[in-house]
Design brief:
The complex is a heterodimer of chains A (344) and B (273). Chain A has 344 residues and is mainly alpha-helical. Chain A is 67% helix and 0% strand. Chain A has 2 domains: 296 residues, ABC transporter involved in vitamin B12 uptake, BtuC, CATH 1.10.3470; 26 residues, no CATH class. Chain B has 11 helices and 10 strands. The N terminus of chain B is likely disordered. Chain B is an alpha/beta fold. The chains are: A mainly alpha (344), B alpha/beta (273).
C-alpha cells in the first residue's frame, strides 16, 4: 500500500515540476511549446548518462560520468536548458504562435526518431536501464523505502522550485513575460526585448523540464522512447489547462487531478473481469474528456491566473480617489501637469 | 528643415526631435510610403494628417520600429535610428500608441503601467533571485507613480481591473497613460481621438497639451481638424506616401495642393453631414 501511495506522491510532485516549467513558457509567455516532452527526455537521458558509470555492459551511451545525486539531476536540467538555447535560436526569432508550434512539434519528432535510432547516444530503442537509484547506498535503502524517500525528496525539490517560480512570476520579469503573451508588439514598443525575454522563459521552463525528467529516470531506473512519445506533451498541457494556465498553484491542482488521479491511480485499480488491461488504456480517454469539459465550462482552469492587486505592491490604498472618480464632474479638472512632470 | 516645409513658407521652428528623409515602403509593389520627409520640432505638438491610404500609420510604424523601411533615414535627435528594432527605439525615448487600442488585456490597469518602464531591475533573473530588496523598492516607487498617473487619467478606480474589461474610451486613456509612464521624450499618437465621444476628445486634447507643457514632444495622426487646429503647433500633410506640405494649420488652409488633396475632401465630408 505504501508503495502505491508514494508512487502517486512522486508523480504528483514530478508533474507539478513539469507543469510549472510549461506554465512559464505557455501560461506566462504564450510560447506554445509542443516539443516540451523532448526537453523532459533530454533531462532524463542526460541525468542518466551523468549518473551511470561508463562501463555497464550491454548498453551504449555517451558520457557515463558517474556523478552522484543531485549533481546528475542538475546536469540534466542544464542540458535541457542548452537544448532550449539551440531551439530558441532556430525558432523564436522568426516564428510566432501556430507556426512556432508546428516547428516545435516537428523538432520533437526529429529528436524522438534520432534518439530512437541512433544507438550510441542513449542506447536507441532499448533506452537506458539499470540507472543507479540515488541515496540507496548512503541511506541503506531497499526497493520500497527508496520509493518513499525519493518521493519525499522529489516533494522537497518541487517546493524549492515552486518558491523560485513564484518569485519569478510575481516579479517584473513575470509581468514582462505576460505582457509579451498578451501582445508582443506592444511589449516591444514599450522597450521590452521580446526575443531575450522569450529566451529567458524557454530557459527557465526547460530547466524545470530537465529536472522533472531527471527525477523520473532515477525513480523508475530506466527511460526509453516509449516513455516520451510526442503525445506525452499533451498530458502536461492537460495538467496546465485543467489546473489553470498562469497560476503555479493551479499546476499542483492539475497534477493532482490529471496525472495522479486520472492517469496513475487507475493503473492501481483491480482489473475489470473479462477485460484485462482495459483500465490501463482508459486513462487517455478520461484525460481527453476532462480536457474537453474544462475547455467548455471553465477555460481559465480550476485555479485561474490571479489578479495582482495594487495593495500587493506595497502602496497604500486610497479609497477617497475611488469615491471622487465616481462623481465624474470633479475629475475633469484633474491636475494633469503635476503627474506628467516626470515624463521627460 | 525639409524642402516641403520651406515650400510651405513657414518660419523655422526649433531643434528637431525627429527627422526622417526619403522614407519608402512598398507592399507587393504598392508604395504605401514613397519618399516621405519631415521634421518634428522639439517640445511642440505636430499633427500628421492626410487622406486615408496616405501612409500615415505606415510612417508611424517605421518611425517606431514596428516595421522596417525599404529606404530612407530616421533620426531621433542626433541619433540615427533607421530600422532599429522597436525595443531599442523605445529605450531611446520614442514611445507610441496604436490606432486601435492595444491594451495588455490579461494584465490589470495598474500592471499595464508598471510594464511600461523599459529597463527594470526586476526584469533580471539574477536580481529577482538574489536582490529582492532592490526589486521590491523599485516596484513600490513605480507603483506610486503609476497610481498618480491613473488618478490623473481617471483610471484609478479601475486599477485592479483587467485591461480587457475597460471601455473603448478608457482603453485610449490607458494607452496614453502607459506611454507617459515610460517617460517618453517623443510620443507618437496614432489617432488618439478615434472612436471616442466628443467630451472625451476635449479631455484627451487637454492631456496632450499637458504633455507638451511638461516637455514631451508629441506627434499625432489625427483626422479631427478642429482639434488639430486647436492644439497642434505644426502640421505635416501626407498624400500618396509623400510629404505634401508642412506648416501651421492656417497656412495649410491656403495651400491649394493641400486643399485639393485632403482639406477639400474633409470640408466636403463635413458639409455632407
Amino acid at each position: 500500500m505504501l508503495y502505491y501511495v508514494f508512487t502517486l506522491v512522486f508523480f504528483l510532485f514530478d508533474y507539478f515540476i513539469l507543469a510549472m516549467g510549461l506554465n512559464i513558457q505557455y501560461g506566462a509567455t504564450g510560447i506554445l511549446n509542443f516539443a516540451y516532452i523532448g526537453f523532459v527526455a533530454v533531462g532524463a537521458y542526460m541525468t542518466g548518462v551523468a549518473g551511470m558509470p561508463s562501463n555497464i555492459t550491454g548498453q551504449h551511451y555517451i558520457l557515463g560520468l558517474g556523478l552522484p545525486f543531485p549533481l546528475n539531476t542538475l546536469f540534466g536540467g542544464l542540458s535541457a536548458m542548452a537544448m532550449a538555447v539551440i531551439v530558441a535560436l532556430i525558432t523564436l526569432r522568426r516564428l510566432r504562435t501556430d507556426y512556432l508550434a508546428i516547428v516545435l512539434i516537428s523538432l520533437s519528432l526529429v529528436l524522438y526518431d534520432f534518439c530512437n535510432n541512433f544507438v550510441p547516444l542513449f542506447n536507441g530503442a532499448d533506452g537506458l536501464y539499470n540507472v543507479p537509484a540515488p541515496l540507496t547506498k548512503a541511506l541503506g535503502l531497499n526497493v520500497n523505502s527508496f520509493i518513499v524517500v525519493f518521493a519525499c525528496v522529489t516533494g522537497v525539490v518541487a517546493l524549492i522550485l515552486w518558491f523560485v517560480m513564484a518569485r519569478v512570476t510575481n516579479a517584473p520579469l513575470g509581468r514582462s513575460l505576460r505582457a509579451i503573451r498578451d501582445d508582443s508588439t506592444v511589449a516591444g514598443a514599450l522597450g521590452k526585448d521580446v526575443f531575450r525575454m522569450q529566451l529567458k522563459s524557454m530557459l527557465i521552463g526547460s530547466f524545470y523540464a530537465g529536472i522533472g525528467g531527471g527525477l523520473l529516470i532515477q525513480f523508475g531506473g530506466s527511460f526509453n522512447p516509449t516513455a516520451w512519445l510526442p503525445g506525452e506533451t499533451f498530458v502536461v498541457f492537460a495538467v496546465l489547462i485543467v489546473g489553470g494556465a498562469g497560476n503555479n498553484i493551479g499546476m499542483f491542482v492539475g497534477a493532482l487531478l490529471v496525472e495522479t488521479l486520472l492517469i496513475h491511480l487507475p493503473a492501481f485499480l483491480p482489473e475489470i473481469p473479462g477485460h484485462p488491461g482495459l483500465i490501463e488504456y482508459i486513462d487517455s480517454a478520461l484525460v481527453g474528456i476532462v480536457l474537453m469539459v474544462m475547455l467548455w465550462t471553465r477555460p481559465q482552469g480550476i485555479v485561474p491566473e490571479r489578479v495582482r492587486r495594487a495593495v500587493t505592491f506595497g502602496v497604500p490604498d486610497r479609497p477617497e480617489i475611488d469615491a471622487r472618480e465616481l462623481g465624474s464632474a470633479e475629475v475633469l479638472g484633474a491636475p494633469v501637469a503635476a503627474a506628467t512632470e516626470g515624463a521627460k | 528643415m525639409s524642402a516641403a516645409n520651406a515650400t510651405a513658407g513657414s518660419p523655422p521652428l526649433t531643434v528637431d526631435a525627429l527627422r526622417c528623409e526619403g522614407l519608402t515602403k512598398a507592399f507587393q509593389g504598392v508604395h504605401a510610403v514613397n519618399g516621405a520627409a519631415f521634421e518634428v520640432p522639439e517640445g511642440k505638438i505636430t499633427a500628421l494628417i492626410g487622406p486615408n491610404g496616405a501612409g500615415k500609420t505606415t510612417v508611424v510604424n517605421i518611425l517606431s520600429g514596428a516595421m522596417s523601411s525599404d529606404s530612407g533615414r530616421v533620426f531621433l535627435g542626433d541619433t540615427e535610428i533607421t530600422n532599429w528594432p522597436a525595443y531599442k527605439i523605445a529605450r531611446q525615448g520614442l514611445l507610441r500608441t496604436f490606432q486601435l487600442s492595444r491594451e495588455l488585456g490579461g494584465l490589470t490597469v495598474l500592471e499595464n503601467l508598471l510594464a511600461a518602464p523599459a529597463v527594470q531591475a526586476g526584469d533580471s533573473l539574477v536580481n529577482v533571485l538574489f536582490r529582492p530588496g532592490l526589486v521590491r523598492r523599485q516596484e513600490r516607487e513605480n507603483a506610486e507613480r503609476a497610481l498618480e498617473l491613473l488618478e490623473v487619467y481617471r483610471l484609478y478606480r479601475h486599477r485592479d481591473t483587467r485591461a480587457r474589461e475597460l471601455s473603448g474610451g478608457q482603453k485610449k486613456l490607458l494607452e496614453i497613460a502607459r506611454a507617459v509612464m515610460a517617460s517618453p521624450k517623443l510620443l507618437l499618437l496614432d489617432e488618439p481621438m478615434a472612436g471616442v465621444n466628443p467630451a472625451l476628445i476635449e479631455v484627451i486634447g487637454e492631456y496632450i497639451l499637458d504633455l507638451k507643457r511638461s516637455g514631451v514632444t508629441v506627434m499625432m495622426i489625427e483626422h479631427n481638424l478642429g482639434i488639430v487646429e486647436k492644439i497642434c503647433d505644426h502640421v505635416v500633410v501626407l498624400a500618396e506616401g509623400r510629404t505634401l506640405a508642412t506648416g501651421s494649420m492656417s497656412e495649410l488652409r491656403s495651400n491649394t495642393a493641400v486643399v485639393s488633396a485632403y482639406l477639400g475632401e474633409v470640408i466636403n465630408a463635413g458639409a455632407a453631414h
